[in-house]
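Much of what follows relies on a compact textual record of a protein's fold. A record is reproduced here so that you can trace the correspondence yourselves:

. . .
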Amino acid sequence: MENKLAILVVEDDLRIGRLLENNLRLGDTYLVDWETSAAAAQRAVRQRRAHERTPYSVVFLDLGLPDRDGLDLIPWFRTQSADQVIIVVSARGNEADKIQAFQLGADDYLTKPFHYGELMARLQAHLRRVHVTTNEGAIVRGEWRLDDSRRVLVIGEREILLTNKEYQLMRILLRNCGTIVPSKRILNAIWGHTHEEHTHYVRIYVQRLREKIESDASLPQFLLTELGIGYRLVVPDFTEKQSKTSRD
């Protein structure tokens, strides 16, 4: 049985790929596979599954792959494991690519050229947050229950599978159900202080959550925007009881 955290590097630049592979293997903490194309990366994932090995916990993904745009791989990786941390590492630094990557399910985006120390700091921050949130226990608000062991939001009889970032966002909102949570607080809690200027990260993941929990994401009833401040989650029965108690 593997006791190392498995990382997949998908990078066709041999210098960068070798740098990541060699440095990540230092300290014997991570098991690292490096592939140079989309097809090879998908094959590596399937082989792990065929041999009943745990899925990759982290994927470092370049976008400029020789056989396919790396953006196309993000949803595919998400179908393989909702728990993976997907960090895009790309020379494409324009805002449109970053937004699209997050909309498709990426957890972070690092633009080349990058400092290896920053890459490792981001990796370790993501892994710390995953570890903390998976050991905090379930949150129950009315008919809503956030199951930390399975990364599932249960609403009545409905189960909704969440990715890492969706799960972390829902945990913050559900814990503060009925009250406004400032966008900057969400950003710092999930992505850290190095991303303070990237407020669109929060908007993108709020929209992803709405698409999963709302009957019409364009007319949200549960996850509400408080203009210029942040967001508020309304769980009907729980929020009504909470308001009545505060009035009494």
In short: The radius of gyration is 19 Å.
